Q: What sequence folds into this?
């Protein structure tokens, strides 16, 4: 496959695959989005009447969407490679001057992957939540929000234009905000929700500006028209669009420098962390970049920036993960780091797109599994999230232990589990592209092995550190069942790579480029495994063979930095928040002292003048008469002067 | 007779009226002075009507007389009421309507 370059713009256009009219089961695409939306409407507007059966409806709508998606996927499997994209045009949305846009959905090899991930993992998490939220008085509302999220996320990945994608993009942002702040009676949680919302808006500006640029340059926002027109645009514009799209992706996917919200987002209930802040929503940025492949393919600069952002984030996330004692925050840092891998892969161009999606899918499974297992642990530990008060839980909750263990083996990249295949491919592709990026990815793998082993050991191994009143127990079946299924995905996910399955599958959408190897594959794999073993060994030494303190030890400068998210909040506060506050204070001062004084002064001037003038109304008729005569005389005089 | 003489007379009457309005305190005198001014104006109208040989001035003079008659009725009523309630016909005493 040829990489389109600026010298051969014609070649790039030919690379786009044909998109057929939707027929048969593809006409039901709208229903996939409408079902969860309907569920959300019923649950959120239905009031208390829906309390008793609301969670069941919530699960069923998502299951329905999954079934439609699965049938579509099977139908696509049976077709030829160049007949796997369908577009369903629903209705004309905007018809205003040059901007003509319809609401339509595009089912192709890329979006169907996401549909399956979202609806399948989403369904499992809905099931899990039934039990997890059983004692929450607002469980019905929780399911309403989850349904809303699924609907918006499906809209995001199925949209056939950037504008419709943006609608879904904002929808998932809203659902994320509502769910992070689900327990909004805790002020910290409400603040976390606001933080996530505000930081996401920063990214949204990037996406909006990218759309403005596209409309200005290409006169359209539909995917096919934009991608067709991209080769004709100048390099500068393409790079600008690419960078603005990246800003959008960075906000949504918690990448550097907008990553600070993700750790606080763990304030939401654990199923939310698993679904939104691990498996699906935060990967929307990766989807955006991969979907915009024809734009990035034409700009080396934008691609390089994407890869660098990914590499920085994967190291930052891994470093933060090493020092967190809160099990959910450790996993959140890991999510940040893993998405860094995906973004890095997406920044490598056609050589990496397929691997980014591959890692996204496997990560969706094992990270959702890890989060749900963590939720199961919390469930048995009275909602305590501090790993320093866990320890030796494997006997008390064997199923959770087994599922978490499989997810753990997958994420650190032990063969033959899913993470090994997907992460190894990314490291390999990064090395082929650039030594520095490759080294970042390699080091990240080592740190990942360390911090995940730390979580594993502190939770399930080492010695008991529970409080006396805590009696750890295994979670009910409805919670362990999704765990087992997700763990199965973590074990078998690597199967997608058999015969280059996923690479060939995605090739019509994102293209593919055979790698030119800088070093032999087996050597790189061996090196990666060695780094991983070193990471695990270090964790074993520090946490298994030496006692873990029940309270947080002092720690050195680096540990301190990692505990505070590498001071990203401090930097944001110093660079953005404080100057912002100063600016507002100055403006308020200007408003009070300047504008208000101006207006009040004018009023006082008029009032004062009037107060003096009214003294003329003395009540003496003769003085009025004198004024009249004077006035009349003046008038006559004036008329005479003008006449003469 | 020279029409200018009528105009001189009219100006004289008007001045006497204006001075009376401004200087006298008794409401009835002030009122009479107002009438004097009105009639000075009437004299001017009639003089010019005669001079230019057209009737409009004479008609206006008639109108002014009608209005003046109406005004006398209202004005005298006010003055009488004032005299009854305040026991005074001085215009300077009626100065309550002010700022």
A:
């Amino acid at each position: 496959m040829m990489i389109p370059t600026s010298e051969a713009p014609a070649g790039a256009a030919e690379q786009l695959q044909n998109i057929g009219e939707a027929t048969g089961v593809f006409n039901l695409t709208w229903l996939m989005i409408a079902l969860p939306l309907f569920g959300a409407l019923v649950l959120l507007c239905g009031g208390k009447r829906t309390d008793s059966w609301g969670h069941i409806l919530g699960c069923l709508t998502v299951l329905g969407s999954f079934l439609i998606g699965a049938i579509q996927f099977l139908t696509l499997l049976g077709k030829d490679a160049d007949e796997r994209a369908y577009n369903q045009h629903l209705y004309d949305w905007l018809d205003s001057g040059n901007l003509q846009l319809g609401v339509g959905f595009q089912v192709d090899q890329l979006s169907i992957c996401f549909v399956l991930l979202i609806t399948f993992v989403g369904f499992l998490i809905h099931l899990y939540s039934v039990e997890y939220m059983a004692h929450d008085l607002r469980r019905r509302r929780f399911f309403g929000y989850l349904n809303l999220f699924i609907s918006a996320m499906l809209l995001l990945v199925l949209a056939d234009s950037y504008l419709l994608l943006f609608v879904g993009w904002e929808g998932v942002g809203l659902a994320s905000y509502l769910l992070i702040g689900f327990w909004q009676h805790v002020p910290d949680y409400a603040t976390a929700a606001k933080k996530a919302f505000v930081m996401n808006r920063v990214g949204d500006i990037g996406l909006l500006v990218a759309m403005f640029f596209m409309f200005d340059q290409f006169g359209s926002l539909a995917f096919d028209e934009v991608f067709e027109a991209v080769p004709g645009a100048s390099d500068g514009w393409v790079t600008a669009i690419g960078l603005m799209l990246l800003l959008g992706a960075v906000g949504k996917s918690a990448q550097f420098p907008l990553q600070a919200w993700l750790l606080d987002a763990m304030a939401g209930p654990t199923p939310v962390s698993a679904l939104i802040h691990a498996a699906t929503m935060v990967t929307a940025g990766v989807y955006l970049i991969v979907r915009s492949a024809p734009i990035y393919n034409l700009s080396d600069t934008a691609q390089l920036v994407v890869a660098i952002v990914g590499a920085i984030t994967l190291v930052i996330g891994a470093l933060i993960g090493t020092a967190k004692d809160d099990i959910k925050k450790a996993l959140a840092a890991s999510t940040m780091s893993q998405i860094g891998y995906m973004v890095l892969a997406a920044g490598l161009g056609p050589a990496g797109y397929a691997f980014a999606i591959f890692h996204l899918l496997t990560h969706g499974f094992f990270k959702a599994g890890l989060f749900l297992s963590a939720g199961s642990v919390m469930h048995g530990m009275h909602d305590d999230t501090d790993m320093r008060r866990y320890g030796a839980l494997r006997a008390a909750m064997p199923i959770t232990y087994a599922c978490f263990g499989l997810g753990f083996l997958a994420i650190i990249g032990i063969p033959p589990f899913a993470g090994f295949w997907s992460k190894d491919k990314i490291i390999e592709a990064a090395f082929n592209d650039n030594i520095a990026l490759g080294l970042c990815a390699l080091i990240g793998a080592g740190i990942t092995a360390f911090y995940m082993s730390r979580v594993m050991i502190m939770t399930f191994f080492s010695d008991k550190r529970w409080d006396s009143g805590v009696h750890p127990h295994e979670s009910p079946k409805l919670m362990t069942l999704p765990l087992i299924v997700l763990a199965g995905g973590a074990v078998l996910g690597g199967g997608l790579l058999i015969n280059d399955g996923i690479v060939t599958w995605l090739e019509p959408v994102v293209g593919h480029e055979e790698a030119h190897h800088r070093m032999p594959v087996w050597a790189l794999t061996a090196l990666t495994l060695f780094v991983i073993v070193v990471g695990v060994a270090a964790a074993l030494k520090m946490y298994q063979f030496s006692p873990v303190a029940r309270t947080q030890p002092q720690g050195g400068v680096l540990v301190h930095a990692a505990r505070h998210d590498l001071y990203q909040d401090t930097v944001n506060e110093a660079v953005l928040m404080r100057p912002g506050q100063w600016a507002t204070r100055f403006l308020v001062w200007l408003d009070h002292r300047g504008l208000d004084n101006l207006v009040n002064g004018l009023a006082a001037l008029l009032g004062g003048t009037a107060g003096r003038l009214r003294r003329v109304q003395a009540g003496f008729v003769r003085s009025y008469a004198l004024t009249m005569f004077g006035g009349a005389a003046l008038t006559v005089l004036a008329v005479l002067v003008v006449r003469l | 007779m020279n029409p200018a003489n009528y105009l001189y007379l009219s100006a004289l009457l008007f001045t006497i009226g204006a001075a009376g309005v401004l200087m006298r305190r008794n409401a009835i005198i002030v009122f009479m002075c107002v009438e004097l001014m009105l009639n000075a104006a009437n004299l001017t109208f009639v003089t010019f009507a005669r001079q230019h040989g057209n009737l409009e001035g004479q008609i206006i003079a008639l109108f002014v007389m009608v209005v003046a008659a109406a005004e006398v009725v209202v004005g005298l009523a006010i003055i009488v009421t004032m005299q009854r309630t305040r026991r005074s016909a001085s215009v300077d005493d009626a100065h309550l309507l002010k700022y």
Remarks:
- The radius of gyration of chain A is 30 Å.
